[in-house]
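Notebook, student rotation project (T.W.).
Task set for the rotation: take a protein with a known small-molecule partner, predict the structure of the complex, and write up what can be learned from the model alone. Partner molecule chosen: 2-oxoglutaric acid. Sequence and SMILES entered below by T.W., checked by me.
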Amino acid sequence: MKNLKKKLEEEGFIVVKKLISKKRIKRIYSQIESLLDTILKENSIKYNKKWSIDKKYLHLKKKNNKLKSKFYDLLKNLESVNSAIFCDRTISMMNKLMIKKDILVYGQRIRLDHKKDNHHLPLHQELNNISKDFLNMWVPMVKVNKKTGSLCVIPRSHKYGHVKYKQSNLEAVKHKIGIVKNILENKEKNYKDKILKKIFDKKTIHFPNLNIGDAIIFKTFTFHGSTPYIGKGIRWTLLSTFHNASKIPYIQKNKIKNLRIPYNINYNKL
Ligand SMILES: O=C(O)CCC(=O)C(=O)O
Ligand SMILES: [Fe+2]
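Predicted structure of the complex:
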C-alpha cells in the first residue's frame, strides 16, 4: 500500500482494480433504472419496461430534454451512488492515500457520455473545488480503453503545480485547447505556454484500460481529459473528490471567502 501512495505521488495517478464491487455497481444501475421508470411513468411517457437502461434514458432525452436534466440532477442523490463512495473499501483506500484521516467528500456524482450527447472534456487540472490538494476518483461502469473513448491522464504533470494559461480561468468544458481527440490526430499545435507545449502531446497522454468498477485516482494538478465514448450505449461513470480539512482555504484565516476556490486564483500561492 505504501507503494501505491508513492506511485500516486510520483506519477500523479494510480489505477485500483475492482475498487467498487460488481454488487455495488449492479445496485447503482438498478436504482438508476427505477428512477428512470418513475420519471417516465409519472410523466405519462410511453415506453417499454423491458428496454435496457440506456434505451430508457435515450427515450427520456428524446421525449423531454428538461426532464432528462432533472433526472441527471438527481443521480447524485441515489443512495447506491453515495453508498459506493462512502463504503469501507473506498474510504479505507483514500485513508491510505491521503496525508490525514480527516477526509471530506465533495462532488460525488454520475456522469454519462454517449454518441448523441458527448461530454468529453479537454485536458485540464481539477480547479474550482474545495481544496488545492486532493484526490479525484473516476470509476467507469462500463469497460473503457483508448479505443472506446475514456479518461486519460498526463503522468507526472502534477509536478508543474497550478499551470496558469488563458483557458485555465474557465471551466474545462469551455476550453478551446487541450482537446484530446485533436491532439491524438495532431490537429492541435503551437501552444503559447511553454509547459503546455511540452506536455500536450499524443506521446505523453496515457489511457488506462479499465474494467467495470476499476478506479483511476489522480491528483488536483494532474492534467486529465477524456475522449468521446464510441462504445455501444452509454459510458456511465461514478466520480467523487476526497479532501483534507487542512487544505481548504475557506476555513483558513485571511484566505478566500468562497467554499469552492475560484478558477482565476493562483493556487501555487494559496
Ligand atoms: O468523465 C469525463 O469526461 C471527465 C471527468 C472530469 O475530468 C471532470 O469531471 O472534471
Ligand atoms: Fe476533471
